[in-house]
Specification:
alpha/beta, TIM Barrel, eight-stranded parallel beta sheet, 41% helix, globular
């Protein structure tokens, strides 16, 4: 169980050479460990390790390639910072098994169990907290823009069906992620920001991942690295509606936002 009486910051550690905003910076153990240390120093209580980029047109990796890319980074971070929670951003059951043996604390599955049919079973076997994200049904379609009749109702319908399946399998520690940046229009994503308080029916904690997402920077004509101020305003808005985890690249500024919220 992840203790979430107060909001937590999840710092993103991409190990991918092709991630859209920090690609290639941290894809060796030494630089990854150094970046993890920086994220923790700035206020992250969870480190989210991503061995595969899921941005549009990213290189598709097998589970074996993900595991090879990670090397010993999970156990290295755990050894150096035993108090830190590590989540593993993968949609493969085999990668989760590897991560579990290395010491991960949370499964962060962008696919909602849809890209690997064994994922929910492995989540049940490991008894790790599971982050359930709303996304289109396949890897090939995950970024296809869908105009939902009512985005909040559609996301809640998905959450209702998937959490029922997870609970039946014995996965009780569930965190919900509405899936910003995945197959949704700018308008629908802004609507979700306004309606965060209605997502998930208040049954499960919410993770919000809007850091450097295109629905913020594209309408402004800016780059992913130029929207920190706008992002923090949205972070504050979702915190005020009950969000419990912010998944971010810029931990230091997100920490200021959380501190402001908690005043």
């Amino acid at each position: 169980m992840v203790e979430l009486s107060l909001p937590k910051i999840m710092g993103i550690l991409n190990l991918t050479p092709d991630s859209f905003s920090d690609g290639g910076k941290f894809n060796n153990e030494k630089s990854a460990l150094k970046h993890a240390e920086q994220l923790i120093r700035e206020g992250a209580e969870i480190i989210d390790i991503g061995p595969q980029s899921t941005r549009p047109n990213a290189e598709f990796l097998s589970s074996e390639a993900e595991i090879e890319r990670m090397g010993n980074i999970i156990s290295l971070i755990k050894k150096e910072f035993p108090e830190i929670l590590i989540s593993l951003d993968t949609f493969y059951a085999e990668t989760v098994k590897f991560g579990y043996n290395e010491g991960i604390d949370i499964i962060n599955d962008i696919s909602g169990g849809q890209f690997d049919e064994r994922m929910f079973d492995v989540a049940a076997e490991t008894k790790l907290p599971y982050i359930l994200m709303h996304v289109n049904p396949s890897y090939e379609t995950m970024h296809d823009k869908i105009k939902f009749q009512d985005i909040t109702a559609s996301v809640n319908q998905y959450f209702s069906e998937k959490t029922k399946e997870l609970l039946e399998k014995g996965v009780n520690d569930i965190i919900l992620d509405p899936g910003f940046g995945f197959g949704k229009t700018v308008e629908d994503q802004m609507k979700m920001i306004e309606e965060v308080k209605y997502l998930g029916f208040g049954k499960f904690p919410l993770l919000i991942g809007i850091s450097r997402k295109s629905f913020i920077y594209k309408p402004l004509g800016k780059s992913p690295l130029e929207i920190n101020e706008e992002t923090q305003k949205l972070h504050l808005k979702v915190l005020q509606q009950g969000a419990k985890i912010l998944r971010v690249h810029d931990v230091a500024t997100a920490k200021k936002t959380v501190d402001e919220f908690l005043k």
